[in-house]
Amino acid sequence: MSEAQHRPWRGILVATALPLREDLSVDHDRYAEHCAWLVANGCDGVVPNGSLGEYQVLTPEERARVVETAVAAIGGERVMPGVSAYGSAEARRWAEQAGEAGCTSVMLLPPNAYRADERSVLAHFAEVAKAGLPVVAYNNPIDTKVDLVPELLARLHGEGLVHAVKEFSGDVRRAYRIAELVPELDLLIGADDVLLELAVAGAKGWVAGYPNALPRASAELYRAALAGDLTTALPLYRQLHPLLRWDSRVEFVQAIKLSMDVVGRYGGPVRPPRVPLPPEQEAAVRAATEKAVAAGLA
User: What 3-state class would DSSP assign to 21?
Assistant: First the structure.
């Protein structure tokens, strides 16, 4: 546990889907049960209020309570909330709220309201670091239009502003460049469909989507990949990849919630402006999930 306490972002941290009732209100009891279930099934912790948790469409009261619910369910050292916001002051307040709730680390996107330059990115991370919790950078150039390239990550780490990076660019070559430039920075797998490649390249954790539906098989895959046991990992990765690749698609929230429904968990609806999957996508996700269930992966 000492390693986890020292670097609580290591291991499998599930970017949790948020259960909404039919009237689209947050079901906090169900969310608490989901967090506990994930840990019981081989995951190390959760990331509430990530993009998978639909944080952008929560009220401030809902967003705060989601963090408190996760902490009450599994303990603060296992909870790394997303604290991203349009403004640095707001993101810092979310980091302070995480600390007050008992969390021991937070995850932060660069400024995401506009295409920020390097000075703005550094200032943003510096402001949020003032909250006093270790910050894990989240690099998602696809959605934010700001790319935390290895050289910029090295600057952020050199100034003591970030301790790890959730790498969602999909460019696995970066793993090696990051390791050369800044070996102390922990690389976290940020997209499910490059899990094997980044694990082999030396990742120290996985901020994960599909374990919301398939935690046991996902944990087996991750641990085998990290151990370099390709005899176990590669066939499992091939089996799961038709699902894992949905984590990198625009409809990832709907796809993962649908898979949760199919395996007998509760996925439920999404909030607008997201809309349900069109029939052909729903059929594809359902078929891939049913195939995984038939193969004993659920």
Answer: coil
Q: Is 286 exposed, middle or buried (0-12, 13-18, 19+ CB in 10 A)?
A: middle
CA distances from 141 to 40, 42, 168, 190, 254 (A): 33, 30, 8, 12, 21
Report the C-alpha gap between 54 and 47 in whole angstroms.
Answer: 12
Going residue by residue through the chain, which has 298 residues, state the pLDDT in tens, using 9 for 90 and above: 455 668 999 999 999 999 999 999 999 999 999 999 999 999 999 999 999 999 999 999 999 999 999 999 999 999 999 999 999 999 999 999 999 999 999 999 999 888 999 999 999 999 999 999 999 999 999 999 999 999 999 999 999 999 999 999 999 999 999 999 999 999 999 999 999 999 999 999 999 999 999 999 999 999 999 999 999 999 999 999 999 999 999 999 999 999 999 999 999 999 999 999 999 999 999 999 999 999 999 9
At 173, the amino acid letter reads R
Please give the structure tokens belonging to residue 260. 């949760």
Distance between terminal CA atoms of the chain?
27
Amino acid at 215: P
CA distances from 73 to 28, 37, 107 (A): 10, 10, 20
Tokens (6 digits) for 4: 């986890």
Place of tokens 């374990």: 211
